[in-house]
Amino acid sequence: AMMEESKLTRFQRRYLMDRLKRGDTLPLQCHPTSSKEPAPAAPAFSPPVCQPRKLSAKPHLRPAEVCQAGDAYAREKFKPRARRDLEKEKQRLQNILATGKDVVEHKMKRILVQTKEEEIPEPDRFEELVNEIQERREFLAEMEALGQGKKYQRIVLTEISQKMREMEIIDKKRSEEMREIMTKDFPGGNKSHPHD
């Protein structure tokens, strides 16, 4: 089958079959029309080419003892993997079949979300506004340095005034909250206590 796939001529097939019957090794090259291998014409000034070493006529078979002495017949040792908790798997399957949802995963996700929310403090809007105003001032300074200040000045100043207005509203709310807290703690206001 291999000979047919390699598209050998009948002469080449016969030649290879004769070599196999005699127990000889197969040739590295099989010439299409004659059993004689043509001698290559050596060019006068070419460097010597490495010739492949010729194989011996008889195949060298290793004895069974040599093969068995190597590690070809050694089996790999069994290494057990970490086992799953079968009870948890059963509970999980029951939840999936009963409710159509994996309840354990949802609980774990909720716990992870809650811890993430607790770890990240909510950014202060007042501080954000201060940073945004500073960014706009830096942008305007860069544009003026590039000669584009007039183009962006009106837009940037409008945005800055909007941010400052928002900061004033936040400041008023905070001061009102502080007044309410102070009046709750000290209902009499600034009056001094008679026991002092």
**SSE string, helix = H, strand = E?**
HHHHHHH
Percentage of β-strand residues: under 5%
Based on CA atoms alone, the radius of gyration comes out at 45 Å
Structural class: mainly alpha
Biggest pleated sheet: none
Walk me through this protein's architecture.
Residues 25-62 are annotated as: Disordered. InterPro entries: UPF0193. The chain has 196 residues and is mainly α. It has a domain at 125-183. Helix content is 57%, strand content 0%. It contains seven helices and no strands. It has helices spanning 2-5, 10-22, 64-69, 86-99, 103-119, 125-145, 149-185. Helix 6 (125-145) runs antiparallel to helix 7 (149-185). The longest helix is centred in the last third of the chain and has 37 residues, at 149-185. The protein starts with a helix and ends in an 11-residue tail after the last helix. 0% of the residues are buried.
List the helices and strands and how they pair.
Elements: H1 2-5, H2 10-22, H3 64-69, H4 86-99, H5 103-119, H6 125-145, H7 149-185
InterPro entries: UPF0193 (IPR007914)
Organism: Pandion haliaetus (Osprey)
Pfam family, one: UPF0193
Short description:
This protein is an all-alpha fold and about 200 residues long. The protein has helices spanning about 1-5, 10-20, 65-70, 85-100, 105-120, 125-145, 150-185. The chain has a domain at about 125-185.
Give short descriptive properties of this protein:
196 residues, mainly alpha, 7 helices, 0% strand, EVG1 protein, UPF0193
